[in-house]
Structures are given as C-alpha cells and as structure tokens.
Amino acid sequence: MKGSLLLLPQLFTSCDTIETLLRKSTHRGCQLQGTARPFTASMSHEKVPDTPVEVLVDLLTKAKKIAAGCGAVPEELKSHLQKALDISSGLDDYLENMTTPESEPLAELYKKTISHDWDQVFKEGKTTFRLPKECITGHVEGQTLKMLIHMSQARKVLEIGMFTGYGALSMAEGLPEDGCLVACELEPYLKEFAQPIFDKSPHGKKITVKTGPAMDTLKELASAGEQFDIVFIDADKPNYINYYNFIMDNNLLRLRGVICVDNCLFKAKVYLKDTTDSNGLALREFNEFISNDPRVEQVIVPLRDGISLIRRVSVTSQNSFSQCNTTDDEVFRGVKGRSILDRMHLDGKVAYVTGGGQGIGRAFAHALGEAGAKVAVVDMDQGKAETVAKELHLKGIHAISITADISRSDDVQRMVDTIVSKWGAIHIACNNAGINMNSASEETSLEEWDRTFNVNLRGTFMCCQAAGRVMLQQGYGKIINTASMASLIVPHPQKQLSYNTSKAGVVKLTQTLGTEWIDRGVRVNCISPGIVDTPLIHSEDLRPLVQRWLSDIPAGRLAQVTDLQAAVVYLASEASDYMTGHNLVIEGGQSLW
Ligand SMILES: C[S@@+](CC[C@H](N)C(=O)[O-])C[C@H]1O[C@@H](n2cnc3c(N)ncnc32)[C@H](O)[C@@H]1O
Q1: Might you name a Gene Ontology BP term for this protein (predicted)?
Q2: CA-CA 20 to 30 A from 460: which of 190, 411, 427, 533?
C-alpha cells in the first residue's frame, strides 16, 4: 500500500518521509508558475496525482474510502477495489526498486533539488518562474533515457528543458567519452545550480548548458549546422509542436535520430473527453499532429507521464516522396534498403584471425567482433588466443580460441575444420600471422629465409587455400591478408630482406587469388600497414630507429593498431564486394616520401 500513501498528506510525518515519497512520484508534468500568479506555500504537502497511474491510485483510494463507509457495498466489490489499488499503487515502487540504482552524482543532484527552497529562490527574483521541485526527471525515467542513449548508440543529444540537470546527467552517463549533450534551459539560475554537480561527475564534461529561450538556442544550433541523435523535449508544453517542427524542418535530427517527448499522456488528460487544461490540450494536439505526420513513426510508452518516441521513417515511405523530383535508385534508397553504415555490419558472419593473440591481429579480432561477426581467435600461443577470445566474450561477441601454427598444413586444416564444425561456415578469413627477422642480406641464412617464408608466404597461402575451398563451396567469402608497406618500399635502415620479399609475395598471392576467385564470389585483398607502434618498438635498441622513422612519416607518428581496424571491417563487409586483389596501404603517407 506504499503507493497510496503518496496521496494522503496527513501521513507525512518527517522530511525524510516526504522526500522518499516524492522520489517515488516525481512530477513530470509540472506547470511553471510565473510572476503573475500569487506565491503559495511549498507544494510538498499539496502533492497532486501527476501521472495516469497516480490519478488511478487517487481515485481508487477515494472510492475505497467511500466503499468502507457504506454498508451496502458488497464485499466482492471492496475486494476488487483493493486489488485494483494494490496493482496501481505498487507499480511505481516496483519499477523504482527493480531499476538499476542511480550513480552518486545523480543521487546528490536529486537530493539537492528536492531539498532546495525553490519558493524562496523565486521570491528573491532569481528565477522568472516558481519552479516546482517535482519537475525533476526521476530515477526510472532517467535510467530509461540512459538506456535509450545506449541502445541507439547516440553521440550527440539535445535536451530542451533541463531544470536541475537530472535527465541531462543521466543521458550523459550513457554517452561515449567523446559524446556531447546540449541542454537548453530558460533560467540561468539552474545552470549555476547544476554545474557544480556536473563537475563532480566524470560525465559532466559532456554537457553544455545554453541558457535563454530554447527556440533561440535551436536557431543558433541550426545555423551552425548541428545535428543530434536524440532530442529530448521536456520544456513548456504549448511550444512542443514548435520545437518539433523546427527540429524536423531544419534537420536538427540526424537521419536515424529519435525524438523523445515527455508528458505525452499528461495525467491522462490527452484522452479524457472533459479536459480543459491548456497543457493537456496542447499535448493532445501535439500527439495528434505527430501521429498524422508522414515523416515519422511514433509510439507512446506509458512510463510515468508518458514518453513519446518518434523516429524519422525512410524517406521512400513518405507520401511526399513521389511528389519530389528525386531519383528512386539504390543511391537514394540504399542497397537493399540499407544505408552505407548498415552495409558495413557483419552480423551473422563467421570470421577467423590468425595471429589474433596480440597486436594487429587482436585489434582485427575486436573490430570484426564489434561489427557483428563471430570470431575464431587463432594463435600459436594458446594463452594469448584464449585471453583475446575471453575479451571478446566479455563484450558480448561470440568467440572461440584455436591454437594453430599456420606454417603447418595439418594445423591449418584443423583450424578450418574446427570453425566449420562449430559455426557451419567461414565468411571472413583474416590471414594475419607473420614473423620478422633482421639481418644484412649478405648474411641472411637459408634458415631465416625459410622460416620467414614458411610463415609469411607459404603459411598465408595454405590458409587462403583451406579457407578459400570452403568459401568457393559457399559461393561467398572475404579473404584479407596482412601484407606490409615493405611490399612497396624498402623500409630503412633496418635490414629485413626475407621479410620484405615475403610480404611482396603476399601481395602477388592476393592479386592472383583475388582475380582467380572473384567470379565465384570470393574476394581476396590485403592490408599493408606502415610501422606499427608495438611494445617491442620501445626497446632500448630500437629507440633511435623510431626517431628516424618518424621523420619519414608525413603523418608524424607511427600507426596504432586501431588505425587499421576500419579497413579490415570494410574489406570484410559487403560494402567492398567490388574490390579484389587490392593492397590497401595504411602508412600515414610514408611510402609516398
Ligand atoms: C519539466 S522541467 C525539465 C526537467 C528536466 N528535463 C529534468 O531532467 O529534470 C522543464 C524545464 O523547462 C524549462 N523551460 C520552460 N520553458 C522554457 C523555454 N522556453 N526555453 C528553455 N527552457 C524552458 C524550465 O525552466 C524547466 O526547468
């Protein structure tokens, strides 16, 4: 019966109780009261139902009271009333308790907001409006917004109506490190209020608060060409429709962006016939406008006071499409209706990476997995292969580890058989394992030459052949070999004849297979990294060489393994289906100098 207490002010016995109860019933549809309205006492003892569920609880509580005092009411009706009250009053508590707890800065922000004397602030003229503390976005809604940010992988968010920043900080927590959130807020006082807590949170730096009327900020953002993945509208209700139209008309919403709108149920007033409340009517008109707008799809989620989720639909499904002078082709619609980024996804694909236990191979394994592929991490070193497979597993990627020496044909065949028996196919073969030994050419031993070629060229060939047979059978496959910038230039001053020559061989192997197998659906390409920053390179012996190399690289730095990740995903994806036998050189311009 906890929920029903919310509506019985006489039961509030301490500040703590009031605070706890308020937390469970945050007012999301709060109405700002301007200077024209007379100042009234604090609202905490005048808590009015503020969501459809709270309205139900209120009505059921009243009905129960009437029934209790009326002898003629059948027991069965009383019992139904009680059950209905239990169901409705328990909902918010249950959601609150089952939702992941908020972070410390959010808890602090909440406490500071609830305990602040907003009436006094208004009386002192520090805010234009008397701001009800219940305006704050609560815990459950805050976590919902954060979840939406994660789900949509948003990087840029716009919030219209920040108040003390609870929603802003919740969303910022869901953004990546380089994500940003612009919060529009009318009252400069609220920026000063929120900023110290933003500064305490590691996510606060992502938030920029713009004070003043939100429409002015929207115009400023539009003229700067800004675009957002998520827009959260939660300010003055009559202006919702203007904010929405401005955002849509000025493309402030990204192609696949989502607009979230708060208070779309407005205490059920949007659908109650006797509504006269201006905000309720504004929200009703807003909902109807959106549901008739061919540019978007919407769904209203009955969370708290209702959150509307609105997304732009494919331009081709809009009625207006046929009236425009547009060319209805794959460039416009996307190939099979998929945008260029969708075409880089590797969902459902099976990949392996040799030499996947460290360095470039590990980076490739992560990249392919992040793009959606299942990944077999192959390495001579069992421990390293297992560790990387575990890393992938931790990220929610299907991965296995295979121990194999790719210079041994039986190991190569076992690798391929293991993957096929586990996952039924091989779509992406990343033949990355290789070794590098240094010696002056006049001193290069046949043993060094053979060892280098056994792994770098013969081993790569065996992998191409074994995986290629599976792929030719499937009629589709992507082979990506790791060659080297050394296939193009002779890197100096280090002496590495066998390495350079073997890598030149990898390029020719790639070109030959790439042209021989393309008509049967198998593409073979290679990546030639420049000098990659690895722990080895920082050894005492190599440090002088690094200085020398840096002066040879237009980019002014060595390659990081992460610089190579997009290339492997591109070559593994259908977006590169017309590319075969290509040597994709990624060396910061070094081969051009
Ligand atoms: C419901 S509260 C926002 C709650 C907030 N989203 C949160 O997470 O706690 C509405 C806020 O909108 C602000 N506001 C109202 N009209 C505005 C306008 N025209 N421009 C910018 N902000 C406005 C108010 O000052 C108030 O802080």
Answers
A1: fatty acid biosynthetic process
A2: 533
243 in active site: no
* DSSP per-residue string spanning 63-127: HHHHHHT-TTS-HHHHHHHHHHHHHHHHHHHHHHHHSPPPPHHHHHHHHHHHHS-HHHHHHTTSS
Quick: pLDDT tens for 511-525.
999 999 999 999 999
With a CB cutoff of 8 Å and minimum separation 6, the contacts of 2 are: 24, 89, 90, 93
3-state helix/strand/coil string of 531-567: CECCHHHHCCCCHHHHHHHHCCCCCCCCECHHHHHHH
Which atom number of ligand 1 is nearest to the Cα of residue 163? 27
- Which residues on neighbouring strands pair with residue 496, listed in sequence order? 439
Non-local CB neighbours of 193 within 8 Å, separated by 6+ positions: 112, 116, 164, 165
Which of the two residues, 234 and 9, has the higher pLDDT score? 234
- 202 with 286, same domain? yes
**Residue from 166, 189, 352, 499 carrying the catalytic annotation:** 499
CATH code, domain carrying 152: 3.40.50.150
The predicted model gives 134-147 an average pLDDT of 95
- The pTM assigned to this predicted structure is 0.76
What pLDDT, in 10s, does the model give residues 350-363? 999 999 999 999 99
Ligand 1 pocket test, candidate residues 27, 50, 51, 234, most atoms within 8 A of CB: 234
